[in-house]
Task: structure prediction
Amino acid sequence: MKSNAIYLTILLFSLLLSTTNSKGQGKLPCHDPNYGKDSASRVECAMNISLYSEFYKQQNFKDALKPWRQVYNNCPKASKNTYIKGATIYKNLIANEKNAATQDKLIDTLMQLYDKRIEYFGEKGTVLSYKAAELYGYKGNDVADQIYPMIKEAMQLEGEESKAAVVTVYIQTAVSLYKISKIEGAEVIEAYSFAVETLEKAMKFNQAKLAQGGKDSDKVTKEIENITTSIGNVEALFSESGAATCDALVSIFEAKYNENIENIDWLKKVTKLLNKSECTEAGLFAKASEQLYKLEPSAEAAHNLARLFLKKGQYEKATGYYDEASRLEMEPATKALYFYEWSTLANAMENYPKVRELSLEALKYNPNDGRPYIMIGKAYAATKGIGQQDVERNSVYWAAVDSFNKAKQVDTSLTATANELITTYSQYFPKYEEWFMAVGSKEGDIYTVGGWINVNTKIRF
Result:
């Protein structure tokens, strides 16, 4: 009975359409050639749109299908909603279909629907993204060879408006094709570079959009979160792909070096990739890093050079570049990392007061990283000649253990490392008898470790 009522309502509505003028409000369906070649076909199109729309509102997708097909086949240019709602109808039918062969046919129709939407209403980049995402959701890497070029084109068209989830699928399909030898490692490297570049642009675009405010702020905030997650996923997929070998990277970029020697963006991309893939010993990394720093002195370029000269054992040059990197870097966590790495260099140079100075700077910018406390403890433990009496020289181990304990308090991931160091250095604590005879203070008393260390600690044996 309900269906009959709907048909009667739609019939009356279609008759009304055929006899009412537009009164300046735009073309009525009966006058719109997108609804059909003549008045009768246009009225029929409008009737079927209203009919399937009523079923659609009730989420009765099965009954909506027949009138929807009439619209899709006979007046495909009538409305973009034909394709938006049609996609929902087919996705529901696919989800409820148990027969695999029938389900495949429904998926094929859904893909054709997206193609038709592009043909009649454009928005190719956006619609290709939908199409690729749906196909990947249904068939995964089994159809990676179809999805990969589709998403690449979508990303090229969408640019900064590309969605994070789409970019992740792009790199997933690239890696999948590489693993079955459908594409070369060089293409995976290019895909990775394109994915990262796209995500960086999308992040800037969405951050600017968020700053403007508006009713979509929640959606934009969520997309920013998605982009952050996607960057991590892309990095992980690329690292685990096996394509990012030093030989492959050097082979690809060495051939392009001379033509890009003044191209700052290209030099940044190359040094970043080589650095991430632990190819910093390659000659290309050295010359690209030095050239980049020459063209554009920056924290990242200085850091690359610092690590380069550190590995080569050229400590003075490395020190200069760590100084530059930590001075130029503005992002707190990265700045902290530079100070921490510099402290390890100072430790190698046996400049223990400098180790503490740099470690404290690192903690200023990232107080939740326990590694600087480990470095301070090691610097204390390595210090010789503290105190006026022989027994006092071992007081440095109290200070060292205090620092190791602090490391695991602020950073539980270092618990095992800190405990191992505590066990190692606790055995060098002063002996009770020697201490009491020489100094006289007892266990639990506060004692100031002398020399450059100059910190208070508790006496313990």
